[in-house]
Amino acid sequence: MRAAVLNEIGQDKLEVLDDVEATGFGPGRVRIRVRATGLCHSDLSAMNGVLPQPAPFVPGHEGAGEVLEVGEGVRNLKPGDRVVVCWLPACGACPACRRGQTELCLAGFMNAGTPNFRRPGGDVFGFAGTGTFAEEVVVDAGCAVPIPDDVPFDIAALIGCGVTTGLGAALNTADVEAGSSVAVIGCGGVGISAIQGARLKGAAEIVAVDPVAGRRESALTFGATRAVSPDELATAKQEVTAGEGFDYVFEVVGKSATARTAYENTRRGGTLVVVGAGAMDDFLQLNMFELFFDEKRILPSMYGGGDVLRSYERTIALWRAGRVDLEGLITHRLPLSEINEALDQMRSGTALRTCIEI
């Protein structure tokens, strides 16, 4: 089958090969025919080494498709079922799951260290234990979440990561208060989803911050009340909050520099929500006095900060009701053979989300 493979960490191009085999099928596992997958910035971060991932590997973790085969013991799925790929499944038994913090379950991360593809030259890993830049993938049954027949594969793919992450940051982690002021730093697919979440919660002012003019323009169509470049954020802070700072600031880049900017633009007693996935050697510096004196809440948001399956259901309900725009997030569509062009679109910021149709 075909799959896009990164041979070594640090390479910026993927090689589309037709000699890749999805492996690991057996009890408790399912084989999925991938129909659509989105590009998430985390895929780039894994390729360049910011996020730890053994190589060679097939990137992609935001996908949807149909079940081809189910292993022994799988009761809730059957061939032909439409599913979204969940890269962070909950085991239901660990301390985090028992506390209701299923987004902190580590079971899914254990899958990342087991190869789930093979080529004539040896084993190939799947990013985050999945690897949706491929025609087929074999995953644990918990990674295959059934979806209703009316949800298109491209929309389902987005729900698998970016939309769930961004919406959840606003709805679950921050629990944005109606009438509040919000700033979102980084307005790709996840940031736009955070903007939609803040709008749903009734935020009065939502300022989108991004260096790419096209993304700023898009943010206004998704619910931002104004959109500025990073250099214009100080002016927006003054005009919107009289210089006090925003009630909520979402950092959706994953860098200490933008996290520091987010902290400085959060009002005293306000909330900074860290959504972007950054590097282990990139440290955010805060002095102990400001941490104490400003009483700002710093809330990391992992995969939307809530029960993933419930978040999927909620997103589908909101999409059906026309309360969130998911179709508009897909600005480009390409076949798997043009995956490197899709990566360039993400790097340049010309795409909110590129859908790879497989």
Characteristic key phrases:
7-stranded mixed β-sheet, 29% helix, 358 residues, 12 helices, globular, alpha/beta
Would you give an account of this structure?
There is one protein chain. This protein is of the alpha/beta class and 358 residues long. The protein is 29% helix and 26% strand. The protein is built from twelve helices and 19 strands. Strand 15, helix 9 and strand 16 form a beta-alpha-beta unit. It is globular and about 60 Å long. It starts with a strand and ends with a strand.
Question: Could you outline the blueprint of secondary structure elements for this entry?
Answer:
Layout: E1 3-5, E2 15-17, E3 21-22, E4 29-38, H1 41-47, E5 57-58, E6 62-70, E7 82-85, H2 95-98, H3 107-111, E8 117-119, E9 122-126, E10 136-140, E11 144-146, H4 153-159, H5 162-174, E12 181-185, H6 189-200, E13 205-209, H7 213-221, E14 226-228, H8 233-241, E15 246-251, H9 256-264, E16 266-274, H10 288-294, E17 297-300, H11 308-320, E18 330-335, H12 339-348, E19 353-357
Parallel strand pairs: 5-9, 12-13, 12-15, 13-14, 15-16, 16-17, 18-19
Antiparallel strand pairs: 1-2, 3-8, 4-6, 4-10, 4-19, 6-7, 7-11, 8-9
Helix pairs in contact: 5-6, 5-11
Low-pLDDT segments, ≥5 res: none
- Counting DSSP H or I runs of 4 or more residues, the number of helices is 12
Note the overall shape: globular
Helix content, binned percent = 25-40%
In this structure, how is the largest beta sheet organized?
A: 7 strands, mixed
Number of β-strand runs: 19
Radius of gyration: 20 Å
Q: What is the averaged pLDDT score?
A: 96
Give the class from helix and strand content and strand pairing. alpha/beta
Taken as a percent bin, the fraction of beta residues is: 25-35%
Q: What is the terminal-to-terminal distance?
A: 11 Å
